[in-house]
Design a protein that fits this description.
Elements: H1 12-30, H2 33-49, E1 53-59, E2 69-72, E3 78-80, E4 86-89, E5 96-100, E6 107-110, E7 118-120, E8 129-132, E9 135-138, E10 146-150, E11 173-177, E12 186-190, E13 196-199, E14 202-203, E15 214-220, H3 223-226, E16 237-242, E17 251-263, H4 272-285, H5 294-302, H6 314-318, E18 323-335, E19 339-350, E20 367-381, E21 384-400, H7 404-413, H8 438-443, E22 446-464, E23 472-491, E24 497-502, E25 509-514, E26 521-526, E27 529-545, E28 548-564, E29 573-588, E30 592-603, E31 612-623, E32 635-649, E33 660-669, E34 674-683, E35 692-705, E36 710-726, E37 742-762, E38 765-782, E39 804-805, E40 808-811, H9 815-819, E41 823-824, E42 834-836, E43 844-845, E44 851-852, E45 860-870, E46 873-883, E47 886-888, E48 899-900, E49 903-904, E50 944-946, E51 949-960, H10 963-968, E52 973-987, E53 1004-1014
């Protein structure tokens, strides 16, 4: 029998059964067993030379997965699925195929037929490695504190700024959104400190990276992870890694998003009728005559003549109820075993919040940006790999000729009856007190157009030195950033407003003019040019010996930051760091592990001879679940860890070691008394200044249960900061000027971070739960403060930032109560004024009675999320909030009729709860005063408000079309989704956003629709 090769290969397994049957029958009929042996031998030859298995790999939603590695267990043969999830591999019956892919659980199945389709579950355990400075660390043996997310988790958030998408997602990272111009990102805090943000190994702004370009974001918090950053290590690090190519077929991804944005909250002011009534009441309380006559009150009530009795909501007049932004992104990735690439192009356009005006030029505060990124990696040979990344961004930011913050201040500080927006003849309304019509500020002062250009270049090299010793390599990288801008202005500062005058007899209309229309001037100015160059080079070593593993690196680092002004008289400023960093990691069988890291770093900011510092850290860990005596089926990991080290913070300003001098005059010499110009000593230098330091400790537990479906992470930290730069509390009268900054402060920060995640299935539905919370505390160990007569006023020993003020006991209800109370020297008191506690019991209420008020402990931050996936549908909700938070309701947001130069601001609904003899028992606000009330309008417990809130930060629902349908139209994936950002907020506050509070520019919420297509 020699013709076995004619057998159809794709029917091998079915044919094998037929041949076996024929072999048995032939042997029976011929009574010759060699007949069967010959047939079976032929089958073995077919099996060895021509057998193959093919199939399709999909996720639980039926979508194909590209780039899945399919290999034979125990063998060397492997293939990769194409963009449709299809594979074909040479295999034998009873072989075990192994399917492995990023973000999916490893899957194995024995070959039974020539067709094997599989469905992979998404990864439940944490990723295999943690991104750290200058490398990666195995997750299982990582004894530090970190948190990470994938870029895919924030790709569809309805915010044009990347930083705004991180709130509530990473344990230990607090993101607070506070807007001033409409396109601002969030401020970050890690363990009460401001972190350093690094993008692909360089210090950069996270908002200069588009969400579609991000592979992962990692937060590092422990001493060993931070020590290599040296003088900038104490605040934590946010590591952003952009996407790279892969050795798979080309994958094209196009996404588009349209979002509608609206203010979360806007101040709510009472109308002109209520304003006039309360103004008269306030003036009467102050012993002054009524401000508005009965006829004027009636005119405001009826509103029949809006020109004489205007009633303007300035926010509705100037702002749109909603505005939009669009985002379009196209990225391509792929490669082979030699070269890999990722290329991204993005266009984003954000509309402004202001209403459009009558001009032929744009006076809104919108923005446009175009950006690109290209990451390429090439294996020159089996030992040499080089990478090059180039990214750029061009932005155009438009704004009115009047500063945006000034516009919002005018809206807040202008009463509704100040003037009509437009007069009957179409001219701008105004009068002697209000000569800056808000409509005129918005449309009649021109515009400003800022053009921003940013360039990033990253290059790296890795040379394996296995010829010297296995696992040794030479590595290096160079990072360059450049930014500059120019601004085109067309502006004028003055424009005419007119006051309508109506003759009471003839009703003739005339106008009184204030100011005149100025001429527009044009200018084209250039901002500072900033450049940053940092590079590193060194050796890396990674090798395993039986059950021992060692990973080490030693590098030289340089980081230089230059600011060049376009003013020819200004000297460019340079700030640089250089030094050595090292790290050694060891583990035994992934059971016992330890790390040591250090940085020896210096900067020119400090005196010669004292510019370098040494920052060491060490950690250790123990995974009890690896022990033979600890074999609990429900516990997959129980890792104990601890780390400690010395971290640094470079707070010194330029030339802090040198004294400052400013021009002065009035120096008199000689008998003639002639005055001469000279120099004044303004600030003393400190030649002994040094960097701030922090002794940091971190201890924690990482655990996973129930087949790694449930994960728990508990961290405790304690950071003792010392040598903190401060200015002493008082000037020396002999010295004549304030002291220079000195390293005298000392503070302590500690807290607990607790996070958990749970992943499970209910039938075909996948469920993901997450919860995070952080409990922080801090304490002033030492601060050089003014001597205080009473110990309860000392800041040392209390909470950092602890407010001090008077303790309010309620409102005075009668003159008799005032007469019987300790004297309050602030003003002539009346019933309805705030009554204060005599803390020191001296019979007088004054500044000596100020004491610590408000919460004595720090706010508690928390977040949680739920994600559901069922066939093609997905749904997720993220909530984020703060508890144990209070704040002081102050300024024009709280107090009625606050003075604003020559005029007084408006009143809000909560002022209707003011004290009057009729409302004395239920009053929630003191008696009204027209202008500042020196007794009531001061910091006290009366104005403390509950700042707790819960915000639904993100909601998303999506649908991915079935893979069979996608195959017919030659697409890999087609997903549609709807997303809501800052959708709802639950708070006791009225007309204030609990996150941005008194910010002029309102925080926004967004609602978007999007499409993602892969092919």
């Amino acid at each position: 029998m020699s013709g076995y090769k004619v057998l159809p290969q794709n029917n091998f397994f079915n044919m094998k059964k037929k041949y076996l049957i024929l072999a048995v029958i032939g042997a029976f009929l011929s009574h010759d067993s060699s007949y069967a042996t010959s047939y079976i031998s032929n089958i073995q030859k077919i099996r060895q030379q021509d057998s193959s298995v093919s199939g399709k790999v999909t996720d639980k939603n039926g979508s194909p997965i590209a780039g899945v590695k399919v290999s034979i267990k125990g063998g060397s043969n492997s293939v990769t699925t194409n963009k449709d999830g299809i594979y074909n591999i040479s295999a034998q019956q009873d072989d075990i195929l192994v399917f492995s892919a990023h973000k999916f659980q490893l899957y194995e199945e024995q070959v039974k037929t020539d067709r094997l389709d599989v469905s992979l579950d998404e990864s439940v355990p944490p990723k295999d490695t943690v991104e750290i400075l200058y490398g990666k660390h195995k997750t299982k043996t990582f004894s530090g504190a970190s948190a990470s997310i994938k870029g895919e988790e924030i790709r569809t958030v309805s915010s044009p700024m990347t930083s705004n998408a991180l709130a509530g997602r990473l344990l230990g990272l607090i993101a607070t959104q506070s807007i001033s111009l409409g396109n601002d990102g969030s401020n970050f805090s890690i363990r009460n400190q401001s972190p350093v943000i690094m993008v692909d190994g360089a210090i950069r702004d996270i908002d200069q990276v588009n969400v579609n370009e991000i592979e992962s974001i990692t937060v590092l918090k422990d001493p060993v992870s931070l020590a290599p950053l040296g003088m900038r290590s104490s605040g934590g690090i946010i590591m952003v890694k952009t996407k790279q190519g892969s050795d798979s077929e080309q994958l094209v991804n196009f996404t588009t998003q349209l979002a509608i944005q609206q203010p979360t909250y806007l101040p709510n002011y009472l109308g002109s009728y209520d304003y006039a009534l309360l103004s008269n009441e306030a003036s009467k309380n102050d012993g002054n005559p009524a401000i508005y006559s009965p006829a004027e009150i009636e005119g405001y009530r009826t509103g029949q003549n809006p020109y004489l009795y205007p009633n303007v909501n300035w926010y509705k007049e100037a702002l749109k109820p909603s505005y939009y932004y669009t985002r379009h992104n196209l990225n391509v990735s792929g490669g082979n075993k030699t070269a890999r690439y990722f290329i991204s192009l993005e266009n984003l356009k954000q509309d402004g919040i202001f209403k459009s005006g009558p001009n032929d030029y744009d006076t809104n505060n919108g923005s446009k940006r175009n950006s690109f990124r290209s990451n390429v990696e090439i294996d020159i040979d089996k030992n040499l790999t080089v990478g090059l990344g180039i990214a750029g961004r061009y932005e155009k930011l438009n704004s009115p000729g009047t500063d945006v913050n000034a516009l919002f201040s005018s809206m807040k500080n202008t009463p509704p009856n100040a003037y009509p927006v437009l007069n009957p003849n179409g001219s701008l309304g105004g009068n002697s007190l209000y000569q800056r019509n808000i409509r005129g500020l918005l449309y009649s002062t021109g515009y400003s157009l800022e053009n921003r250009r940013t360039l990033f270049v990253d290059a790296d090299i890795n040379r394996k030195l296995n010829s010297i010793t296995e696992g040794l390599s030479l590595t290096g990288s160079v990072h360059y950033s450049s930014y500059y801008s120019n601004t085109v202005n067309k502006s004028r500062s003055a424009f005419a407003v007119y006051q309508l005058i109506i003759d009471p007899v003839t009703q003739a209309q005339t106008y009184r003019q204030f100011n005149s229309d100025g001429t527009f001037s044009s200018s084209d100015s250039y901002g500072d040019v900033t450049r940053r160059l940092n590079y590193d080079a060194g050796l890396a070593y990674n090798r395993s010996f039986n059950k021992h593993s060692v990973d080490a690196t030693l590098r030289y680092t340089w980081d230089q930051y230059d600011i060049s002004s376009n003013n020819d008289n200004t000297v460019p400023l340079t700030h640089a760091y250089q030094g050595l960093m090292g790290r050694v990691s060891y583990d035994y069988n992934e059971k016992y592990f330890a790390d040591f890291a250090f940085s020896y770093q210096g900067t020119e900011q400090y005196p010669k001879g004292d510019r370098f510092g040494f920052f060491p850290a060490i950690s250790a860990g123990y995974d009890i679940s690896k022990e033979d005596f600890f074999k609990v089926a429900s516990i997959n990991q129980l890792k104990l860890k601890v780390s400690a080290g010395l971290l640094g913070f470079d707070r010194a300003s330029y030339f802090a070691t040198q004294p400052y001098y400013t021009p002065g005059s009035g120096y008199v010499f000689g008998a003639s008394g002639t005055g001469l110009n000279g120099w004044n000593e303004q600030t003393l230098g400190n030649p002994n200044i040094t960097w701030e330091k922090s002794r940091a400790i971190n201890a924690g537990i990482d655990a996973r249960f129930f087949n790694s479906k449930l994960g728990v992470n508990l961290e405790y930290f304690n950071n003792r900061q010392y040598d903190v730069l401060q200015t002493r509390g008082a000037s020396n009268p002999i010295l004549g000027i304030t002291y220079p900054v000195e390293n005298i402060g000392e503070y302590e920060y500690n807290g607990i971070e607790l996070g958990s995640d749970y992943n499970f299935n209910i039938g075909k539905m996948g469920v993901t739960l997450m919860a995070n919370t952080q409990f922080f505390a801090n304490k002033v160990i030492f601060t050089d403060e003014l001597p205080r007569q009473y110990s309860y006023q000392e800041r040392t020993g209390g909470r950092i930032g602890q407010p001090f003020g008077l303790v309010a006991l309620g409102l005075f209800q009668s003159q008799a109560e005032i007469n019987a109370s300790p004297g309050q020297f602030f003003a002539n008191l009346q019933p309805g004024d705030i009554k204060y506690k005599d803390v020191n019991s001296d019979g007088v209420i004054n500044d000596d009675d100020q004491t610590a008020i408000g919460k004595k402990s720090s706010p508690i931050n928390y977040s949680g999320s739920i994600g559901l996936k069922y066939e093609g549908f997905d749904f997720s909700v993220l909530v984020q909030g703060v508890a144990n938070k209070d704040f002081f309701y102050t300024g024009s947001n709280a107090w009625a009729f606050q003075t604003n130069g020559l005029v007084n601001t408006g009143v809000q609904p909560h002022h209707l709860g003011r004290w009057t003899p009729e409302t004395a028992a239920t009053a929630t606000y003191p008696r009204l005063s027209y202008g500042t009330n020196v007794n009531n309008d001061r910091t006290s417990t009366y104005w403390i408000k509950d700042g707790d809130y819960l915000r639904v930060k993100n909601i998303e629902i999506g649908y991915t079309l079935p893979s069979d349908f996608m195959k017919r139209i030659h697409l890999s994936e087609f997903r549609v989704y709807a997303n809501a950002f800052n959708a709802f907020t639950f708070t006791k506050l009225e007309d204030l956003d609990p996150e941005s509070l008194f910010s002029n520019y309102p925080l926004y919420k967004s609602f978007s629709l999007g499409i993602s297509i892969k092919f």
